Amino acid sequence: MRIFPFFLFALLAAGPLHATCGGSFSTFVAAFKTEAIAAGYAPETVEDFFASAQQDQGVLRADRSQGVFQKPFIEFSRRLISQNRIDRGRRNATRYKSVFDRIEAEYGVSRGVLLAFWAFETDFGAIQGDFNTLNALLTLSHDCRRPDLFRPQVLAALELYQRGDFSPTRTTGAWAGEIGMVQMLPSDILESGIDGDGDGHVTLKTSAADALMSGGRMLAALGWRAGEPWLQEVVIPGSLDLSHTGINHTKTVAAWAALGVMARQGEMAAGDLQASLILPQGHKGPAFIAYPNFNVYFEWNQSFVYVLTAAYFATRLEGATVYDAGNPNPGLTGAQMKALQAKLQDRGHDVGKIDGILGARTRRAVQAEQVRIGLPADAWPTAALLSRL
Questions:
Q1: Which of 236, 224, 231, 246 lies closest to 313 in space, CA to CA?
Q2: What positions does the domain Transglycosylase SLT occupy (predicted)?
Q3: Where on the phi/psi map is residue 266: left (φ > 0), alpha (ψ -120 to 50), or beta?
Q4: What is the pLDDT of residues 80-117, one digit of tens each?
Q5: Residue 91, domain member (yes or no)
Q6: What are 231's strand-pairing partners?
Q7: 228 and 291 Cβ atoms separated by less than 8 Å
Q8: Domain assignment present for 342
Q9: Strand pairing of 288-290 and 274-278?
Q10: What's the pLDDT tens digit per position in 37-90?
């Protein structure tokens, strides 16, 4: 979920949108033109903006083949985090020290957080995507899976075009419409774009200063709490009531400490800070305490495994040790996960789409069934749970 500039809210609140998903793509684009003109854009501007619009089947294929998010945390994090990325991240921290100093002073976002996003989103700017951004946004708006997420982005791109900061034919980026080194959607750029290098332009594709400053401002707007941590590896006692774990449960840091939860490195945050205890692969695997800033990550990306990996990588870039992987119980295959989600849904749980991905809603449902059946309630689905269901 992205934040949208006020003018987009005004457009959306003015009345029902004319361009509905599905059907003929050309009819859809024509309706979008009518909508844009009704919103106050000059007809010639609208015609020029949409003149080259095409549906992109490559975007739809990319949207439907995100199998990497089905991987469990240990495998996923080891795939994304390498010593090379750590070394390059630390070199970039030195190279852009003055930029990160400014971000921390103005927005309170720690440099490791932005370095991790920069690494994962575009490999520090090296791979920014070559999809035509307008076509990607229109294709995903026309597609009926998540039209409401992408439709406002078309209007935001039109606003950027009118300001001279977007080209319908030359602006490229990721398949989901994000642009630049830290991959920001058009509405993010309108709301949070910063001229970090002082050249008079917000150039997120070629200016690291612009991209990083803009990313920091966006995180601050999304609710980042200055000077507070976001994630920390912990050690849990064998006697812990596992039903209290998960991002949907919180206690004060002092309360977790009273239950025997300890930092694996350093000290935990202030005792009155609210926090969740996360066991991404159950009570036999790694354990993390997630502070309020961790929730802001879900405004950037809604994949649990991506968010946790990005947050953990940020701690590594700032000196944390490699997590203790432990010896977690084997997880489920993709097919088994889908079967489990179907069984959970049949029992009245909201797991969202049956897609084989262990997301937040599936974890909550798994934990509830573990409590009911009497299995360790760590939200990690196993063959034993699937069999019992």
A1: 231
A2: 25-314
A3: left
A4: 999 999 999 999 999 999 999 999 999 999 999 999 99
A5: no
A6: 290
A7: yes
A8: yes
A9: antiparallel
A10: 999 999 999 999 999 999 999 999 998 876 556 789 999 999 999 999 999 999
